[in-house]
Design a protein that fits this description.
By secondary structure, this protein is an all-beta fold. 0% of the residues lie in helices and 19% in strands. It folds into two domains: 77 residues, E3 ubiquitin-protein ligase SopA (Pectate Lyase C-like, 3 Solenoid); 89 residues, 3 Solenoid (Pectate Lyase C-like), CATH 2.160.20.80.
Length: 190
C-alpha cells in the first residue's frame, strides 16, 4: 500500500542519504531538499512545488508529475522520458536542467523561464504552445520536435532545423531566428 502525503511542507531533507518515502504526494512543498541520485521511481507528485532543491541524477522511472512547479532547482542529467506519461505537466523557473532528456515527451504549454537547457534532448517531443522565456538552449537537440505555436522570442543559443522540426506559427525574434538558417552555412549581416 502506497503512502499518501497531503499538504505537507518538507524542508532541508537529504534524500540522497536517507531513502525517500515512496507514495503519492499532493499539494506538498519541498524546500532546500537534496534528491540527488535519489530513487523517485513510481512516486506520484500532484500539485506540488519544489524550491531550491537538487534533483540531479534522480531516478524518474515511472515517476508522475502532475501540475508540478520547479523553482530555483538544480536538475542535471534527468530522464523525463522515463516518467509516467499520464497527465505529465510541469513548469520550470530559474532552474538548471542541463544534460537532461525529454525524448518523445508530450509537454504542451510547458513554461521554461530563465532556465538553463544546455545539451537537452528534445528529439520527437511535443512542445506545442510551450513558452521558453530567456532560456539558454546551447547544444540542445531538436529533431522531429513539435514546436508549433511555441514562443522562443527571448531564448538564445538554439539551433533548430525548420525542415526537420514542426515550427508552424512558432515565435522567434532577431538575432535568435538567424539560427534557423545555421545549416545553410551562410553569412548574414544585420
Amino acid at each position: 500500500m502506497l503512502n499518501y502525503i497531503e499538504e505537507k511542507i518538507i524542508e532541508k531533507e537529504n534524500f540522497s542519504e536517507n531513502p525517500f518515502v515512496k507514495g503519492e504526494y499532493e499539494d506538498c512543498v519541498f524546500k532546500n531538499c537534496d534528491f540527488s541520485d535519489a530513487d523517485l521511481s513510481h512516486v506520484k507528485f500532484s500539485e506540488c512545488e519544489f524550491f531550491s532543491c537538487n534533483l540531479s541524477m534522480a531516478n524518474l522511472n515511472q515517476t508522475a508529475f502532475k501540475n508540478v512547479a520547479f523553482k530555483d532547482c538544480k536538475m542535471l542529467g534527468l530522464r523525463f522520458d522515463y516518467c509516467s506519461k499520464f497527465g505529465l505537466s510541469f513548469s520550470f523557473e530559474n532552474c538548471i536542467l542541463n544534460h537532461s532528456s525529454f525524448y518523445q515527451v508530450k509537454m504542451k504549454k510547458t513554461l521554461f523561464k530563465n532556465t538553463s537547457l544546455q545539451e537537452i534532448d528534445f528529439t520527437e517531443s511535443n512542445m506545442t504552445e510551450s513558452v521558453l522565456e530567456n532560456c539558454d538552449l546551447d547544444r540542445s537537440t531538436f529533431y522531429s520536435t513539435i514546436l508549433e505555436k511555441a514562443d522562443l522570442r527571448t531564448s538564445f543559443n538554439y539551433s533548430i532545423d525548420p525542415e526537420r522540426n514542426r515550427i508552424k506559427k512558432a515565435k522567434f525574434s532577431l538575432p535568435g531566428a538567424l539560427s534557423l538558417l545555421y545549416k545553410y552555412n551562410i553569412k548574414i549581416d544585420y
